[in-house]
Recover the amino acids of this structure.
């Protein structure tokens, strides 16, 4: 097994302060490795980075069209949103259209990352609900599929028809038998794969065609939905949203907990997957920027890039304290 | 240079998800290495873990006694507090007793980590001020010393008498010439040293005597102040506070940004310093617990320990999702 390689460094006062190592693979539509760092065979949990894979059965089954889901809703099904008003309103409306409500969700509640909504809750003395959960869009997709399949309410259980369909789709597009699963923060199963397998699945999405078979068409539509509605995939100020806008909606990208990041690049028919070994999100954001710049689809000088790569760190008085950049030998 | 070693692992669904590497040294009163992992010579920024070193001139100069500082104030001078009411009230009173106010601080403002105080500010439509800065106690100490020395107001500048005294004390107790400095989040200079140097300084504190010379007595008093007032050093729910209580106030410990942690163990006349390479705080907290358990001064079964080591990770619905524990070969 190849060791992870240094990918991102934090410097302060001319000295190296912290280092992040990781694995990354750029894959082509045939599943071949275009370029790799660290160990392509390293087994990882994709966490939220694979939400577009988890949404494939929603479209392939016909459930999305039967429910009349919009492109914005498809983007939300692939989202780790920050519980801002645009997200909570959209999920509330979606559930209502299904004849369901917040209590049908199985994702749990947490304080939203959006500070406006957080402050609104505090001022109104309200507790956050499951709709604020960053995964509530994915779960609305699961509910839509469960209803279409006339399956039971416990849609996050491993043997539920929804999760069985997700696992089948996941293993087919990664082209690997998953070595196991964990339970995600939102209670859904999360299937493990190699970094190569995850990159391969992203290349499948990149090469997908509107005129293809049901799976290819599903992947095509999900990619376009994410790229067209970046604000639904994360939220204002967040990496996924800002970087998809910076790439003029031509590339779909997605972060996952514990520092996973993926990219789908239709124009190049390429997919990227990376994992920072220690789970540090600042490093996965910097590393995906570096790879997207390397492939010529992201402008290194764009403010959304510079916020995350070659980032000058400033303290509470605005003084420059350090800089975050790629490690020598990585991009 | 020896590579950092795996110290802390996060497991999910029976698979390794994330790994943190680091360097650690346990040092005796003679400056010798009792035990080490990774590279004792690795250069690090101690960040806030060295606040008790930065407070030495405050006591040695006579400034603390001239100002009549209490033991709680000495603990606050070594603190990274969370801006709770007990901290902000204490700093406000301290500044008032100096005939100074919030505007004399040079640490900058940030939202307090204490959620009660954060919510109070939101409900009152108030902005946080410099007193909320986690370093405002250290800065009150700097101001106390600056006034005693009749030095100017820009006490965080490198050539100010306060910082010159800090640098001299820092280099003498680490027994190293600092290879450089960076600017900390609170705008004060932060001097680099080796992990061994930082551990050596902690062993000096551990062996310090009330009946010793001015420096030894200063180190003795600061250690006792931290251990006696753990709630002033961090705050409710925080690692430093909970673990010092768990050790019955017999050990002083301190965290620093970018995953540094130190411990002063008077009963063993030993000091510990560790740095997690990637800057991940969850790992520095787990690693210091493991080392304190190893030295027999912390109970592995105490809830404060179990919250940070062998920690079962639970999701928003309370389901077990993973576990954080030490890596094989580390403690």
């Amino acid at each position: 097994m190849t060791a992870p390689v240094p990918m991102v460094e934090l410097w302060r006062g001319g000295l190296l302060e912290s280092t992040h190592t990781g694995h990354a693979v750029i894959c082509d539509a045939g599943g071949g490795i275009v370029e790799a760092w660290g160990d392509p065979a390293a087994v990882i949990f994709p966490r939220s980075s694979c939400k577009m894979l988890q949404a494939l059965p929603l479209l392939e089954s016909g459930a999305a069209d039967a429910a009349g889901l919009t492109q914005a809703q498809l983007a939300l099904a692939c989202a780790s949103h920050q519980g801002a008003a645009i997200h909570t309103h959209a999920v509330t409306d979606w559930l209502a259209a299904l004849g369901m409500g917040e209590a049908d969700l199985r994702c749990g509640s947490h304080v939203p990352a959006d500070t406006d909504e957080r402050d609104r809750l505090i001022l109104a003395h309200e507790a956050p609900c499951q709709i604020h959960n960053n995964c509530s869009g994915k779960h609305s997709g699961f509910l839509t599929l469960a209803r279409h399949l006339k399956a039971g309410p416990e849609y996050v259980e491993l043997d539920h028809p929804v999760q069985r369909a997700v696992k089948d789709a996941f293993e087919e597009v990664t082209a690997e038998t998953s070595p196991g699963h964990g339970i995600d923060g939102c209670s859904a199963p999360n299937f493990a794969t190699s970094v190569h397998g995850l990159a391969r699945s992203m290349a499948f999405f990149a090469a997908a065609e509107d005129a293809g078979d049901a799976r290819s068409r599903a992947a095509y539509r999900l990619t376009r939905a994410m790229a067209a509605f970046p604000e639904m995939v994360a939220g204002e100020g967040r990496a996924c949203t800002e970087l998809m806008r910076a790439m003029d909606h031509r590339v779909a990208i997605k972060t996952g907990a514990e520092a996973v990041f993926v990219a789908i690049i239709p124009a190049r028919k390429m997919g990227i997957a990376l994992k920072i070994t220690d789970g540090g999100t600042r490093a996965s954001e910097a590393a995906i920027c570096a790879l997207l710049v390397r492939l010529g689809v992201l402008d290194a000088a764009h403010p959304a890039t510079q916020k995350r790569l070659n980032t000058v760190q400033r303290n509470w008085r605005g003084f420059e304290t350090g800089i975050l950049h790629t490690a020598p030998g990585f991009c």
About this structure: The radius of gyration of chain B is 19 Å.
